[in-house]
Amino acid sequence: MIGKSSLAATLSWFVGHDVLDGESPAFAPFSAVLVIQVTVYQSLLQSLRYVGAVCSGVAVQAVLALLTGPDLVTFVLVALITMAIGRWRRLAEQGSQVVTGAFFAFATYAAAGESTERLAQLGEIVLLVAIGCTIGVAVNVVLLPPMRYRGVEHGVRALAHALCHLLDDVRPALHEHDLSEERTRHWRSRVAQLQGLVDQARSALRTAVEARHLNPLRMLPSYRHPEFSGYRQVLDALERVTHQVASLTRTLEQWPGSEVGQECDAFLHDYAELLAALGTIAEQLSRLDEQQLPHQSRELCRAADAAQEKRRRLVDRAESTDLALGDPSRPYGILLAEGVRLMDEAQHTCNVLRHTVDRAGKHGRTPADTTAA
Asked: How far is CA 133 from CA 8, 12, 23, 157, in A?
């Protein structure tokens, strides 16, 4: 990004200053740097918004200045109108450039002499902005922006890794029946941080999807055609897991001190074993690698089968006790429900990855071609 921005700014300055000999050549490199984005699609989108914003601001200033002259009253009207236009949602983050363009245009207009010269300089501002945006987009295209597949993978890994560590911390506490306030509060704070990892992973997914649009790498023979639906489904499942883990830790934080005894300890022990099995699945997802997906999908399926066995054992043994599983005021039924939901999401994730591998084999492609699909 630094290299692209520097190159685009240098080329824009050369065109604006040395080739066109413009009065305000800095508009070109400023515009070029502004529209350099991580993807070609975003560069083109931001350049269109930016050019539209600047043209709107310059047009408002030109019309009002021609009607009333470049005085203080005109400046107030320009400020009010361009600030209102800048709030148009379609301009998004470039809305502020309506005001910026109008103010620079006003200063240029006021400093110029004749009306013809003033209009020429306003036209030059628009031309330099258009040149800078064009060069910025061209540099982003020519220097082959990456497809950014790996960003999605890293986002899923980071989220799965955090879930794995959290489950690993909860498990020994259940074995020891140590549900102290300090410990459970720490779990809740860590669960709250998981949403940030979900947002980062979703942002990486959006960037990866956008990186395909208008990208010249798609014309290469080796280009892959991922749809990212597989990663999206895995990410959706992991996000639901974070909500269920939040409910689980909230239940543990509110654990009644009166819930003790041999049956209670046995229930928590069996629940810890289920969390350990689910933690194994999360740990394998934290090492997700599209090149190793066939082997990893088989390991995940085996881990899911083992976790299903732990779930069945937990439910069967809990139902054979005198614990009040149907009493909503007691924690056992709630924990059982969350455990079943966690297992369902883990199984769904494994099924998604296995389906990806099967579809790759059916179409005669490598898993790397369809992991994201």
From this structure: 9, 9, 18, 36
